[in-house]
Write a structure and sequence with these properties.
Length: about 160
């Protein structure tokens, strides 16, 4: 199994075992559905979603066979993961992009070290903030996972050293 981080359980809610998850995962609509397997904490304890609702900035979730606050208190402050194979998406997971080499034409510019989340759009972080490139079609020409390569559109000022 390949685990993908989707968020963190920040607290419980009510007395019936509901938890608050804070998540900026791009594909929430495919993850937070009844019957989906989630994996919690370092030991990746498997739980199954029983119900889901949105409340303010939180994703509120209950799990099958857990109906008491005392049973979910152990999950507070734990990370939540999914199995990559459990969802099908159009596009790429952030984990697929991190580690790819970045090129403008045939000039190597660095390696993707992170994907930064912003309200407008994601940002591709190259070589630990040496370069920041908006993760949108106008800048990203091609992503080739098999050859571990991203081609960025040549644009004045984007990679200038001065």
């Amino acid at each position: 199994m390949q685990y993908i981080f989707i968020g963190e359980i920040v607290n419980t809610h009510g007395i019936k075992g509901e938890v608050k998850i804070i998540s900026d995962f791009k594909y929430k609509d495919k993850v937070f559905v009844k019957g989906m397997n989630l994996y919690i904490g370092k030991n990746k304890e498997n739980v199954v979603i029983s119900s889901y609702r949105k409340h303010k900035n939180y994703d509120m979730v209950t799990f099958e066979n857990i109906n008491d606050i005392n049973d979910v208190l152990i999950y507070k402050s734990e990370n939540v993961y999914i199995d990559k194979a459990s969802i099908k998406i159009d596009g790429y997971f952030d984990e697929d992009i991190i580690g790819l080499d970045v090129y403008v034409k045939d000039t190597y510019k660095g390696t993707v070290t992170d994907i930064m989340k912003t309200k407008a759009h994601d940002i591709i972080v190259i070589d630990n903030h040496k370069y920041l490139v908006p993760y949108i079609d106008e800048f990203v020409k091609n992503i080739d996972i098999d050859n571990k390569r991203i081609e960025i559109v040549e644009m004045k000022g984007l990679f200038d050293e001065n």
